[in-house]
Amino acid sequence: MKGPMKMNFTKQWFEKSAQIEGDSAVGAGLPEFLFSSVCPEQDAGQVAAELRVAFGRFVALMRRNQGWSIEQLAKKADVDVAELVTIEQDLHHIPEPMTVYNLAQTFKTREAALYELAGLTKSKDPKFAQAAVRFAAKSESIAKLTTEEQAALESFVAELNSQR
């Protein structure tokens, strides 16, 4: 009896499959961040930090636009609070696919676009990354803290400075 059959897929095969699938939410092959580690010829730095920054800002602005706290969004999207905090603040974090899916459903956004923004799939449009960078640059808040943000900040600073 022979051992298991081994299948070898090339980068070209994955790209052609992705073209055939078009804008469907299901991608061909592995997510970009995993594909890079499996295929050494693929540049591991292709998952752009700019997209992850834009993704975090997008989540934060959508949440704030709805008037939701992180806890409220976590409940509505069925996502862990810690995961949301990390998404909004950690430039290197790559979120779980289910988290991105749940956020897309909650925000009523195309899943495929949010997967690209989160760095889970490779963008087919080079203008997408440019638009994401422009969005991230324009979304940097220069507004003063709200009363609630100021109170939360002061409370947290007091906790940081307290003796345990």
Brief write-up:
By secondary structure, the chain is an all-alpha fold. The chain is built from nine helices and no strands. The chain has a domain at 46-138: lambda repressor-like DNA-binding domains (434 Repressor (Amino-terminal Domain)), CATH 1.10.260.40.
Contiguous runs where pLDDT drops below 50 for at least 5 residues = 26-47
Shape descriptor: elongated
Give the distance, in angstroms, between the N- and C-terminal Cα atoms.
66 Å
Overall CATH class of the domain at 46-138: Mainly Alpha
SS-based class: mainly alpha
Mean pLDDT: 74
Treating each run of at least 4 consecutive H or I residues as one helix, how many helices?
Answer: 9
Question: Judging by the overall fold, what is the CATH architecture of the domain at 46-138?
Answer: Orthogonal Bundle
CATH topology of the domain at 46-138: 434 Repressor (Amino-terminal Domain)
Q: Major sheet: size, sense and barrel closure?
A: none
- Secondary-structure element order, as H and E? HHHHHHHHH
Question: Helicity level, as a percent range?
Answer: 55-70%
Give me the CATH superfamily of the domain at 46-138. lambda repressor-like DNA-binding domains
How many individual β-strands?
0
- Please report which band the strand proportion falls in: under 5%, 5-15%, 15-25%, 25-35%, 35-45% or over 45%: under 5%
**Radius of gyration over all CA atoms, rounded:** 19 Å
Defining key terms:
164 residues, mainly alpha, 434 Repressor (Amino-terminal Domain), 9 helices, 61% helix, 0% strand
